[in-house]
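Thanks for the sequence, V.! I ran Thiol-disulfide isomerase/thioredoxin right away. Repeating your input here for the record:
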Amino acid sequence: MMTELEYFEHAISLEKYMAQMESNQEKTYTIYEKFELPDDPEFIDMLKQQQLNILAITEDWCGDAMMVNPILRKLAESADLEVRCVYRDDNPELMDRYLTDGGKSIPKYIFLSESGEVKGSWGPRSPKVQQMVDEKKAKLPEKEDHQYELHWKTVIGEISDRFTSDPELWQDTYEDIRKSLQKSLA
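Predicted structure:
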């Protein structure tokens, strides 16, 4: 069984991952271009001193990853952190270590020390984003309803639109990742 560090060593950079996306690439780069990293020099300096590496479990078809990966990339670039990506569907044994309520929800970010020690993890959503998604899903009919698929596609489209256009969601996501990193490094 591979360690998280071994996965990290064999993974691709977040930059390369984004450059070779087949789904959601345009939306991902739109968020990357529009997201403004908050002025947070003390936090950035702390991250630089820690010299963390981040292993991302992701897939380019995932709407959450579409929104969160560019936010993480901005943070990583500012703090000189290396982020490398593995694909969830190609790495079930790693994904199974980082389930969310029993599910394979992504993205998942694993924070590693320079020596490869797992310091913490984050993902797939901030509480505010989760609340928005839950509210949208609560309006769906029962899965047995013949209109369910149509409504599901509409809800997914609405969520995706919010992910690509709502700076409040981006900021909340950043703040939640920040909080998780601080906790992991305390």
